[in-house]
Design a protein that fits this description.
The complex is a heterotetramer of chains A (180), B (173), C (542) and D (244). Chain A has a single domain, classed as 3-Layer(aba) Sandwich (Rossmann fold). Helix content of chain A is 31%, strand content 20%. Chain A is globular, with a radius of gyration of 17 Å. Chain B is of the alpha+beta class. The longest helix of chain B has 13 residues. The model of chain B has no long low-confidence stretch (mean pLDDT 86). Chain C contains 22 helices and 13 strands. Chain C folds into 4 domains: 98 residues, Glutaredoxin (3-Layer(aba) Sandwich); 204 residues, 3-Layer(aba) Sandwich (Rossmann fold), CATH 3.40.50.11540; 84 residues, Ubiquitin-like (UB roll), CATH 3.10.20; 85 residues, de novo design (two linked rop proteins). The termini of chain C are far apart. Chain D has 244 residues and is of the alpha+beta class. Chain D folds into 2 domains: 75 residues, Ubiquitin-like (UB roll); 151 residues, Alpha-Beta Plaits, CATH 3.30.70.20. Chain D has 6 helices and 10 strands. A 5-stranded mixed sheet of chain D has the order 2-1-5-3-4, covered by helices on one side. In chain D, strands 6-7-10 form a 3-stranded antiparallel sheet. Classes of the chains: A alpha/beta (180), B alpha+beta (173), C alpha/beta (542), D alpha+beta (244).
Chain lengths: 180, 173, 542, 244
């Protein structure tokens, strides 16, 4: 192992469409530079089962929409130095929160009964129950920084990650403050 | 209980209640600024403010419909839905609150199966919470129909609404 | 009616009353009625009839006698014995032994020397519970309309205003604006028509001062308004009263009719040039209508949404015309000031807050009821002496004044003089006079939540800070109450309270955070005890 | 009419007694954020974004409905005011369902622009996620009450300019909402002339045209000062001022 360990970075996918992660991949050749500068210790694009301890930076995509998300969010907070809300769903609830005007029962009935192509099929117990409302991440745990946009642009992500890897909480210039 | 007015925007044929209302409207020379007075009068005559009744008032006072609707829904005294045969009006003023009105509220709501602000499905009881009826010396206070009950206990309150619920439904005429 | 006729009618009523051997006065204000005063009066009347005593005994229904927690209350004149908790059995005994037999019934008698009575100074309530509120003659016999007569015959409008100004009377609705100054602004304002409005939209939960005055002595308020009409040059008055006060509305309607018939309202009052009419406007359940610009909109048949001031109602009020708006108790102070002079009034209370103040004392206190004390009296005297302290086995924790716009005053400030400035210093307000006593069983976070829910419900919804901010404050309080809030939430709560207070459009929003801020100030620990630590990064030792 | 001189944020300005401080500020290119104000409509002082500090006055007053006096010292840029403005936007954002990503006025929204202007990077207030009525019964327009900020521009333009008074506010407090006629489906309103003014003046995506999809709808408001000048002064101004 190197004398100065590289920052340990994670990305997490909660209640979102993974568009923010797609945008992350839009960093293109900058990804190669990132690979040199950090260790990606947990991410949906790699097959890691448990969220490790002592993570330096995490980008959390999506709203907190299920019991599992809630549990995950709390775990993330305890195990991570800098938690970043990654994109509009994590920051405002956004599209994930569109379901909040319906009750969980209504939602399940509509999705798994009325609209199910092969007839009614209630989700099995393996799937985590939905929380009453989908909530932005910071309503559930303290969050250190926010990346806006649906999705955030690659440049915006670069600016933030670059700062974070230098150990700074990114102060995003106003030009990156864009919802939607 | 009160049948809805027979007519819509036309002058009613034979519904004497509209004559009473017209009298109030005439007393204020059909002035738009008398809207609240006219709504008071309409509610006391008809029991509640049905949509057609508000349309009638809007036409009579020459006011925009949405103005009348907006005023009627701004003031909590006006009911847009019929009330129950009995009303349990619980004072939620500070003195009553300090002396335990919340417990009465919860117990009575539970007994009736509806929240305050609602009427039981069978139309027997309306639960209403009031903003201090000014009988703070007797806290907690409720008005049961027209009868003011002071220093009310949780059990006493539940018993009274229980009697109303148990009453056989009256045959409407 | 001339001044001589007024005097004559007053004298003949006094004479009539004096002819009775006994007069049995029963309080039939809302409080006593709700514990059976109606039956008691019925019993007295039946007894008089049965025993054929109509010439010797008069049965009178009056307004509030004050000791509302011990009703029904009965007073036997002329010896002035007062009885409490008078049920039918007691009524029977009192009639038998005292009214007929001449011997007071000790078992129900109230000790007239108890501090509840001796520490009070009655100006506004002087006739309350002593006269038949439904008879104009009873009011006249007690000096009613004498001040109006004097103002009309002996004083110029400017002199009336000067007298009110010198008295130092301040608005009793809560804000304490100098009444004389307000009157002179309306007097000087230009307008074809001017209006005098009485704000009787007593909406504070826990306050019933105005209702008691209107039920007990309605003519006093009409007289005050007529004098105001004369002083300001207004010819039309409105009393904006809550629909929740049916008895007060009835008594006011009766009083207005009587005054009109007697020529004390209407055209050419007492053969002077003054024409002044009063109409009632019934509120419909909106606390915000106590705010003057909302009240005016409501009188004009609109949603009671306040508008920015200036312009103030005294310049641009009802229908764009100069409008004087005072509260019930303020008008009730006018006649005594004119009758007894400004010096008499200014000698009571404190130099900055002269006169008396009526309070509705309720909550966890022995003597609940209606009291009137000189301004500046220490809070301790009200709570411990007049109120008789908290019930046995409990200790005083705080007194809440000013309702949803006010704050809680803790035990350490019990020696605070009760006047406008002192109450403000400790984060509360005088308000209209509701005073709720809380003991050790009251949780202050709950109390704050109670008031905030009230403000959320009563916010008109026009301006963002009040509409949405009070809702957020209520949500935060609930979060704290349910043990889910972190210190960050408490910080946000405080920040929102200050923001809503400073940025809201009208008095409702500007004062809505007061109950939270004041309980935070004096009972912060109760909030902090409910907090949970926020989640933080926990580095893991390898 | 005498000219009044005073200062805004230390800048000497002049205007007339009959002009609001907001008008005078704009004439001098001093930016004061607003939401409920719209040139051509009466002012209500409801959004509280244009609050100012005035020396010698303890209360904050709205620039849209406060008039100048000689030597007045006005500040609109203090840290306190900036903080309050941000909180107001925060409260508005939490109050409705403002999912910019799926809104037809995305990138053309006054609330969104204000959020950028005040630097609203996240909302600390609890999102209320209201469940109000969306009404698409009108042949040309839609109202989504969940996006309404209750600025009442639609109510005012319909009453003051079109003269139809279709819209008004129902209920109160946090439950306030805009209703057509007797709170009926917009498409069934007999008083609505379908003039579309309400849609154009709406600062957000609450009143929108049918057929527009995400980010497609722009709103034009210059017609208002144009119409109002024509109506009151009989002058048809060639260049109407677009404020936002």
């Amino acid at each position: 192992m190197a004398a100065t360990p590289k920052p340990r970075v994670a990305t997490v996918w909660l209640g979102g469409c993974s568009g923010c992660h797609m945008s992350f991949l839009d960093l293109d050749e900058r990804l190669i530079e990132l690979a040199d500068r950090m260790d990606l210790v947990f991410t949906p694009i790699a097959d890691v089962k448990t969220y490790p301890a002592n993570v330096d930076v995490v980008l959390v995509e999506g709203a907190v929409s299920t019991e599992e998300h809630l549990h995950m969010a709390q775990l993330i907070r305890k195990r991570t130095r800098f938690v970043v809300s990654f994109g509009d769903c994590a920051t405002t609830g956004n599209v994930t929160a569109l379901r909040n005007r319906f009750s969980v029962d209504e939602l399940l009935r509509r999705s798994y009964h009325e609209l199910a192509p092969g007839g009614p099929a209630t989700p099995s117990k393996i799937i985590s129950p939905l929380t009453l409302k989908a909530r932005p991440l910071h309503e559930v745990i303290p969050v250190d920084a926010f990346l806006h946009g649906c999705p955030p642009t690659a440049d915006q992500i670069w600016f933030a990650v670059d700062n974070l890897l230098q150990g700074k909480i990114p102060e995003l210039p106003n030009v990156y403050l864009r919802y939607g | 209980m009160t049948p809805p007015p027979a007519s819509k925007t036309d002058h009613p044929s034979g519904d004497n209640r509209f004559k009473l209302l017209d009298r109030t409207i005439a007393r204020f020379q059909s002035r738009g600024d008398a809207l609240i007075e006219v709504l008071h009068s309409a509610q006391s005559i008809f029991g509640y403010l049905e949509n057609d009744l508000m349309v009638y008032i809007a036409r009579a006072l020459r006011l925009p419909l949405s103005r009348v609707y907006g005023v009627a829904t701004f003031y909590h005294f006006f009911n847009l839905k019929p009330k129950g045969r009995h009303a349990f009006v619980l004072c939620m003023g500070t003195a009553c609150y300090v002396k335990g009105a919340e417990a009465i509220q919860n117990a009575v709501a539970k007994r009736c199966g509806v929240s305050f602000g609602e009427t039981t499905a069978d139309g027997a009881v309306s639960l209403v919470s009031a903003r201090c009826i000014g009988s703070c010396g007797l806290a907690p206070v409720a008005v049961l129909d027209d009868d003011v009950a002071g220093k009310l206990s949780v059990d006493g309150a539940v018993e009274r609404v229980g009697q109303w619920i148990a009453e056989p439904e009256q045959v409407s005429s | 009616m001339t001044i001589e006729e007024l005097e004559e009618r007053a004298a003949s009523e006094q004479q009539r009353q004096a002819e009775f051997k006994k007069r049995v006065l029963t309080c039939t204000a809302a409080g006593c009625v709700s514990c059976g005063a109606g039956k008691v009066v019925g019993h007295f009347r039946a007894q008089v009839k049965e025993r054929n005593l109509a010439k010797e005994v008069e049965v009178v229904e009056t307004g509030c006698m004050g000791l509302c927690g011990s009703g029904p209350l009965v007073r036997v004149a002329p010896d002035e014995t007062m009885y409490k908790n008078v049920d039918l059995e007691a009524a029977h005994q009192i009639f038998d032994e005292h009214v007929v037999g001449g011997k007071p019934v000790a078992a129900y008698a109230v000790d007239p020397k108890m501090p509840f009575f001796t520490r009070q100074v009655k100006v506004v309530l002087e006739n309350c519970g002593r006269i038949d509120a439904e008879k104009i003659e009873a009011s006249m016999a007690a000096g009613g309309y004498e001040a109006l007569a004097r103002a009309l015959t002996e004083m110029k409008p400017e002199e009336v205003i000067e007298e009110v100004r010198k008295a130092g009377l301040r608005g009793r609705g809560g804000a304490g604006y100098p009444t004389g100054l307000k009157w002179s602004i309306v007097r000087k304002a230009q307008g074809d028509q001017k209006y005098v409005v009485c704000n009787a939209d007593e909406g504070d939960p826990g306050a019933f001062m105005d209702r008691s005055v209107l039920e007990g002595d309605p003519h006093r308020v009409l007289e005050g308004m007529a004098i105001a009409g004369y002083a300001t040059g207004a010819s039309q008055g409105y009393i904006y009263i809550r629909a929740e006060y049916p008895l007060a509305i009835e008594r006011l309607k009766t009083a207005i009719k009587q005054a009109e018939r007697a020529g004390l309202l209407g055209n050419r009052i007492m053969d002077s040039a003054l024409s002044f009419r009063i109409d009632l406007r019934i509120g419909a359940g909106a606390f915000v209508c106590g705010e003057e610009t909302a009240l005016m909109r409501s009188i004009q048949g609109r949603r009671g949404r306040p508008r920015p001031r200036p312009p103030y109602p005294s310049e641009k009020g009802l229908w764009g015309m100069p409008t004087l708006i005072n509260n019930v108790e303020t008008y009730a102070n006018i006649a005594p000031i004119i009758r007894n002079g400004s010096a008499w009034f200014a000698a009571m209370g404190t130099p900055k807050s002269p006169g008396t103040k009526v309070f509705a004392l309720a909550g966890k206190i022995c003597n609940t009821g209606l009291i009137e004390v000189p301004m500046g009296v220490p809070l301790r005297e009200i709570i411990e002496e007049i109120g008789g302290g908290t019930p046995e086995g409990t200790t005083f924790k705080a007194a809440q004044t000013g309702g949803p716009s006010g704050g809680c005053i803790p035990a350490e400030h019990l020696d605070l003089p009760v006047d406008y400035e002192s109450l403000q210093l400790v984060g509360s307000i005088m308000g209209s006079g509701g005073m709720i006593v809380m003991d050790s069983t009251s949780n202050m976070v709950d109390v704050a939540k109670f008031f905030m829910d009230f403000s959320v419900d009563e916010s008109c919804g026009k301006c963002v800070p009040c509409r949405s901010g009070t809702k957020q404050i209520a949500l935060l309080l609930e979060k704290i109450r349910s043990g889910q809030a972190t210190p960050d939430d408490l910080a946000l709560l405080e920040e929102l309270c200050v923001m809503v207070k400073e940025t809201s459009l009208c008095g409702l929003g500007q004062s809505a955070p007061n109950p939270v801020l004041s309980t935070l100030r004096f009972f912060r620990k109760e909030y902090v005890d409910l907090l949970i630590p926020k989640l933080v990064y926990e580095p893991h030792e390898a | 009419m005498p000219v009044i001189t005073f200062t805004i944020n230390g800048v000497p300005v002049s205007g007339q007694q009959s002009e609001s401080i907001l008008e005078i500020a704009r004439q001098h290119d001093i930016r004061i954020p607003t939401l409920c104000h719209l040139d051509g409509l009466s002012d209500v002082g409801a959004c509280r974004l244009c609050l100012m500090e005035i020396e010698g006055t303890s209360k904050l007053l709205p620039a849209c409905s406060t008039y100048p006096s000689e030597n007045m010292v006005v500040r609109t840029d203090t840290d306190k005011l900036k903080r309050y403005r941000r909180t107001i936007i925060e409260l508005l954002a939490a109050e409705g369902n403002h999912q910019c990503a799926v809104c037809v006025v995305n990138n053309n929204c006054e609330l969104q622009n204000l959020a950028y202007e005040v630097g609203l990077e996240h909302v600390r207030a609890q999102y209320l996620f209201p469940k109000k009525e969306l009404d698409a019964t009108h042949p040309d327009y839609i109202i989504d009450r969940n996006r309404c900020v209750l600025c009442t521009r639609c109510v005012r333009v319909c009453h003051e300019v079109e003269g139809a008074h279709v819209w008004d506010i129902a209920n109160r407090g946090i439950n306030c909402e805009i209703v057509a006629d007797m709170n009926q489906p917009w498409g069934t309103s007999e008083s609505c002339t379908s003039c579309g003014k309400c849609v154009l003046v709406c600062p957000v995506g609450a009143l929108i045209e049918k057929g527009a999809t995400v980010s497609e709808m722009e709103k034009h408001r210059a017609f208002l000062p144009y119409i109002m000048t024509a109506r009151t002064k009989q002058e048809w101004i060639a260049r109407a001022i677009e404020e936002d």
